[in-house]
Write a structure and sequence with these properties.
The protein is mainly beta. It has one domain: Pseudouridine synthase (2-Layer Sandwich). It is built from three helices and twelve strands. The strands form two sheets. Strands 1, 2, 3, 4, 5, 6, 9, 10, 11 and 12 form a ten-stranded mixed sheet that branches. A hairpin with a 7-residue loop joins strand 7 and strand 8. It is globular and about 45 Å long. GO terms for molecular function: catalytic activity, acting on RNA; pseudouridine synthase activity; RNA binding. It comes from Acinetobacter chinensis. This is RNA pseudouridine synthase.
């Protein structure tokens, strides 16, 4: 018999906070615990996308955050914006920064450059696989260190955008993210009640207006 605990989806019900908006784009601060897009089951339909769609009927999601990750999430208001933003992400002209609390004393700065692949027998987990994995690179910098808790506050900058990339990369170098139920062996000991990973910063040149945009979100931990 499987020892897996059944997943019960209980998304937060607070109103979405809009942190940036223009005629083409709307950017929200997604709370931890809310899916970016609907799941397959009827009880997993509540999501950031459907909530935004209720207000902006033509909206399209441009990227995703894991359910357990909070922070900046951008939507296109119409098809032309969706296409333009997609090209922007493909060209890697978007800067995304994350803040995380990780176990142990992280080096002052560094990078993780190891390929990732889905662990098909344990989905949605991802694993490092040097032969079959897709290239993945993350830059990191230690912001501060709490010696009492043995926890570092880290700035994480994904160069690529693989699924669970930041989470697996931090685990790979021995500094799993606090509260990460998939990749931290002692996640249950966290007192935060959530995974400590937040999409805190987004910068890009608005592809339709040409305006330079920088969005800084408040960090909830």
């Amino acid at each position: 018999m499987s020892s897996k605990v059944p997943f019960v989806y209980m998304p937060p019900q607070e109103k979405l906070v809009i942190v940036y908006e223009d005629e083409d784009l709307v950017v929200i601060d997604k709370p931890a615990g809310l899916l970016s897009v609907p799941g397959r089951l009827p009880e997993h339909q509540d999501s950031a996308y459907l909530r935004v769609l209720a207000q902006y009927p033509q909206a399209k999601i441009t990227h995703r955050l894991d359910m357990a990750t909070s922070g900046i999430l951008m939507f296109a208001k119409h098809r032309d914006a969706e296409v333009a933003v997609s090209k922007m992400f493909q060209a890697r002209t978007v800067t995304k920064n994350y803040v995380a609390l990780v176990q142990g004393k992280l080096d002052e700065e560094g990078s993780v450059d190891v390929p990732l692949i889905t662990d098909w027998e344990n989905r949605p987990r991802q694993i490092v696989h040097f032969e079959l994995g897709k290239s993945a690179k993350t830059l990191y910098r230690r912001m501060d260190y709490d010696a009492v808790q043995d926890v570092s506050r880290a700035l994480l900058i994904p160069v690529t955008g693989r699924s669970h990339q930041l989470r697996v990369h931090m685990m790979h170098i021995g500094h799993p993210i606090t509260g990460d139920q998939l990749y931290h062996p002692d996640a249950a000991q966290s007192t935060l009640g959530r995974m400590a990973l937040h999409a805190s910063f987004l910068s890009f040149r608005q592809p339709l207006s040409g305006i330079d945009v920088e969005i800084n979100g408040s960090i909830p931990f």
